[in-house]
Each structure stands twice: as structure tokens, then as C-alpha cells.
């Protein structure tokens, strides 16, 4: 009985309290890692500003680094059962949407929105030999000249695929709340960090020589800069096609389209949210198999 009492008081009871607490800290650590990975990846597929390429007039999808950080904290450091919302990038973390499992046995919140990370950043692509980056700039100059020639001829096409800043890094960090009940008399040495709160940080990086389309129209705009036959897509050629189409229908402008860029088909069942309408080309008679959300 004496041995059991000593063991229960010194080992079992503290273990019953600390093991669930450590499990929650591990969950918080994993969530911090996921937030960093989410930021690094998302940063590669959004535009940091709403300034479109020359000649492109449509609106770009924009999400800056600060908004992306708030969105990551809202989605990974909050209640995991809550649905995703477009306003997450504005609202960020809040007590109302906190993870209710992240609390100790007294009901004290283990995380109270103390963020220690930094927003994602776009950095130059690593180039140890100093060859890749100059080559990318040369290619960018060549294709930009082609795009300018197309624009001079009144052809809606461009090329902005070269990106010498293709290394994206993100850091997510949180600090846990203070545990006043742990060692209240400060009898244990070396546990001040545990008592005052732990800091979890995680870094993630994505090296991506990407080009960002953002919409089907922008994808076609950028890709046409690589299609030489786009030079023939002008009013003179279309007029000639109309005349020749009287004798050879396959030469009509709607049959032979120079510089035409098609889209990848998206299965209709992948674009059927409950609150938005989906329109497919089959319904309008073009028959390309392209569906889009209206």
C-alpha cells in the first residue's frame, strides 16, 4: 500500500495529467508544420499584386503574404471541424473558432493566438553555378520580344512564364499559453520554458519554376506567346480565309484558327458545388468538353 501510494503520487497521477497534455502539444506542433507547408505552397499559385501583364485586361487572383498567413492560422490552428471560408484570409485566428481540444485539464486554453512566424517570402532561385538565372533572363527577353511583336500586330498574346524568383519560403510559429498550475512553487529546475509556454516553429520551402495563369483566359494569353502561328491570327488573314472559304469551307476562320490554344477538359462532376452553376461547352454546342463555374 505504501509503495502504491508513493508510486501513484509521484508517477501515475502526474503521468495521467502530462500524457494528454503532451499529446495536445504534439498536435499543435504538427498543425504548425502543416500551416507552414500550406503557406509555402499557396504562395506559388497566387499573385502578390493586382497588376496584370502588359496587354492583359482581366482581373488577377491576388492573395498577399499577410493574408495567406492569416488564412493558414485560421485553417490549421483553429477548430478542425469548421468549414473553409473565403474570408479566412481576412479574419485569421480568433477565440471564437479556436481548437477546443487545445486546453488543459482545468479548461485553460493552451493556445491564445500568440503567433511567432513570419509571412511567406519570394526569393531568387538558388543557382550555385551562376548559370541558370542568366539563362532564364535571356529566355525571358527573347519571348518578351515575341510577345511585343504579337502585340504590335494587334494579336492578343503574351508570355510571362519565366520567373527567376522561384524559391518560396514560409515560417509558421506559435507560443503556447503559460501553465500557472505547473510547479507553482518553482521547486523544479530547468522547466521554466515548459511552464512559461513552449514555442513551436516550422519552416517550409517550395522551389518552383512556375508560371501563374489564374484563369483560362490568362492561360491562353500566355501560351499563345509560344505559338508561332499566332502571327497569322490577324484581320487580313481572316478576311482571306473568308473569301477562300467560299470554295474550301475548311479554310474558313471558324474552321482553321491560327494560333488557337485549347484548354484541358475538366470532368463536369469535378465542378459541381452546391451553390454555384456549372456551364459546359457541350450545352452551348461547341463540344470541347470544357466546364467552368459561373
Main β-sheet: number of strands, strand sense, barrel status? Answer: 3 strands, antiparallel
Adjacency order of strands in the biggest sheet? 1-2-3
Q: Briefly note the structural class of the backbone.
A: alpha+beta
Instruction: Summarize the amount of helix as a percent range.
Output: 25-40%
* Quaternary structure annotation: single chain
Radius of gyration: 28 Å
Question: What is the fold's blueprint, element by element?
Answer:
Elements: H1 2-43, H2 65-76, H3 88-91, E1 118-123, H4 132-152, E2 167-175, H5 192-196, E3 199-207, H6 216-223, H7 235-244, E4 278-280, H8 281-284, E5 291-293
What brief labels describe this structure?
single chain; 294 residues; alpha+beta; 3-stranded antiparallel β-sheet; two-stranded antiparallel ribbon; 10% strand; elongated
Summarize the structure.
With 294 residues, the protein is of the alpha+beta class.
3D structure, described in words:
Mean pLDDT is 76; it is low at 283-288. The protein has 8 helices and 5 strands. It is elongated, with a radius of gyration of 28 Å. It starts with a helix and ends with a strand. The strands form 2 sheets. It has a 3-stranded antiparallel β-sheet. By secondary structure, it is of the alpha+beta class. Helix 1 packs antiparallel against helix 2.
Amino acid at each position: 500500500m505504501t509503495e502504491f501510494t508513493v508510486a501513484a503520487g509521484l508517477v501515475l497521477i502526474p503521468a495521467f495529467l502530462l500524457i494528454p497534455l503532451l499529446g495536445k502539444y504534439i498536435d499543435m506542433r504538427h498543425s504548425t508544420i502543416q500551416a507552414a507547408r500550406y503557406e509555402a505552397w499557396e504562395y506559388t499559385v497566387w499573385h502578390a499584386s493586382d497588376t496584370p501583364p502588359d496587354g492583359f485586361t482581366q482581373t488577377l487572383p491576388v492573395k498577399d503574404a499577410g493574408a495567406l498567413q492569416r488564412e493558414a492560422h485560421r485553417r490549421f490552428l483553429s477548430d478542425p471541424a469548421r468549414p473553409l471560408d473565403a474570408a479566412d484570409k481576412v479574419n485569421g485566428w480568433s477565440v471564437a473558432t479556436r481548437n477546443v481540444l487545445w486546453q488543459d485539464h482545468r479548461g485553460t486554453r493552451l493556445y491564445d493566438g500568440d503567433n511567432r512566424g513570419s509571412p511567406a517570402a519570394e526569393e531568387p532561385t538558388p543557382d550555385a553555378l551562376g548559370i541558370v538565372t542568366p539563362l532564364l533572363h535571356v529566355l525571358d527577353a527573347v519571348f518578351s520580344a515575341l510577345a511585343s511583336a504579337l502585340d504590335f500586330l494587334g494579336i492578343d498574346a503574351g508570355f510571362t512564364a519565366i520567373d527567376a524568383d522561384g524559391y518560396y519560403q514560409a515560417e509558421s510559429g506559435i507560443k503556447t499559453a503559460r501553465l500557472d498550475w505547473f510547479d507553482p512553487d518553482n521547486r523544479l529546475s530547468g522547466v521554466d520554458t515548459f511552464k512559461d509556454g513552449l514555442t513551436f516553429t516550422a519552416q517550409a520551402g517550395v522551389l518552383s519554376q512556375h508560371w501563374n495563369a489564374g484563369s483560362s483566359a490568362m492561360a491562353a494569353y500566355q501560351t499563345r506567346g509560344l505559338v508561332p502561328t499566332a502571327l497569322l491570327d490577324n484581320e487580313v488573314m481572316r478576311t482571306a480565309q473568308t473569301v477562300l472559304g467560299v470554295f474550301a469551307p475548311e479554310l474558313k476562320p471558324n474552321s482553321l484558327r491560327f494560333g488557337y490554344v485549347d484548354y484541358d477538359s475538366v470532368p463536369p462532376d469535378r465542378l459541381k458545388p452546391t451553390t454555384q452553376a456549372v456551364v459546359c461547352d457541350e450545352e452551348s454546342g461547341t463540344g470541347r468538353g470544357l466546364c467552368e463555374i459561373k
